[in-house]
Amino acid sequence: MKILLIGGTGFIGHNVLEQLVGAGHRVAVFHRGVTRRALPEGVLEIKGDRNQLANQRREFTDFAPDVAVDFALSSASQAEGLLQALSGIAPRVVAISSMDVYRACAVSHRSEEGELQKLPLTEDSELRSKRLYSPEALAAMKAIFNSGWITDDYDKIPVEKTILSNSNVAGTVLRLPMVYGPGDAAHRLAPLVKRMLDGRRKIILPQPRAQWRGPKGYVEDVAHAIVLAATSNAARGRVYNIAESDALTEHEWAQLVAAEMNWEGEFVVLPAERVPRHLSDPANFAQHWVASSARIRQELGYRETISRKEAIHRTVAWEREHLPQQLSMKQFDYTAQFDYAAEDAALAAYAGSAASS
């Protein structure tokens, strides 16, 4: 097949690119001209502004893709621009979306009120009714992912509706989990890895978050799911969740990292009121995000290609060599997250209260 990747040079996209090339597909990559790695030999490179895709219609026409995969859709207007640019050229597009479309995510972020959402989340679960991210959160996302495609009106719900409602170009929507692995700009495992490398003998886990479960996926496995959806005609008009089949708690994830690091310390789960301020989180952790990926497994035959143990091994090895100096999103804020004096004081106070009781 001939496959056009839009924004396919980043964390996830590069893995998709390598898998497609390895399987013998002809690939063209449209990007803004900034790549961290050289493109594989034989890949067609098209440079331009993703918000002006119509300028590349001639190059898209010459390549004549069977399908286009867009990793960088932020808004309905971007989705409309994509469909207009590919109308009459590509018969199908695959849009990379997110689990953040579900109302459960809004409940946990406390941006929407109401009862906890039923689990597991399926492709038919209720979607949120409001935008999820504040302007400050969007600015942080732009900084972390060094991305020009995230717009101020970022919202994957109108993106999905636009992609799936077009009569000229068939659509497929993939809702991604929290993706981890080498190259993860969010450094999801870094806070644990750094504490262990710093010789911390006790690591605090806030009680509500320690038992929270959310969808995760190793980057090569997520890329494999994207490749399956891009190369299968059965994916036309379909929406798929991508996630590992079992959702571990944050405490269980921490234990996997500890085993990989040969860390022999102790995780101390503290009640929310005893957690130091820099580790506190106002989220509603009673609302889990456990998601079912049964549909893509049944319809497209998706299976993980990398064991979880190997995925953790590769990710931890990369994090050890690439610990960031700072990140600006609160849950990864390196300017404030490592207040060891405050953590020691909280641990001592908790131990003292336990002893006196």
What can be said about this structure in brief?
The protein has 357 residues and is α/β, with parallel strands linked by helices.
CATH architecture descriptor: 3-Layer(aba) Sandwich
How much strand? 5-15%
Can you write the helix and strand succession as a string?
A: EHEEHEHEHHHEEHEHEHEHEHHH
Number of domains: 1
| Poorly predicted spans | 328-332
Question: Which geometry do the CA atoms define?
Answer: globular
Q: Tally the beta strands.
A: 11
The CATH topology turns out to be Rossmann fold
**Spatial separation of the terminal alpha carbons:** 68 Å
CATH superfamily: NAD(P)-binding Rossmann-like Domain
User: Structural class, from secondary structure content?
Assistant: alpha/beta
Average pLDDT rating: 93
Integer-rounded radius of gyration: 21 Å
What does this structure look like?
With 357 residues, the chain is α/β, with parallel strands linked by helices. The chain has helices at residues 11-22, 57-63, 76-86, 103-109, 135-145, 156-165, 190-197, 207-210, 219-231, 250-261, 294-300, 308-321, 340-356, and strands at residues 2-6, 26-31, 44-47, 67-70, 92-98, 170-176, 178-180, 202-206, 216-218, 239-241, 266-270. It has one domain: NAD(P)-binding Rossmann-like Domain (Rossmann fold, 3-Layer(aba) Sandwich), CATH 3.40.50. It contains 13 helices and 11 strands. It has a 7-stranded parallel sheet, sandwiched between helices. Strands 7-9 form a two-stranded parallel sheet. A two-stranded parallel sheet has the order 8-11. Helix 3 links the parallel strand 4 (67-70) and strand 5 (92-98). The chain is globular, with a radius of gyration of 21 Å.
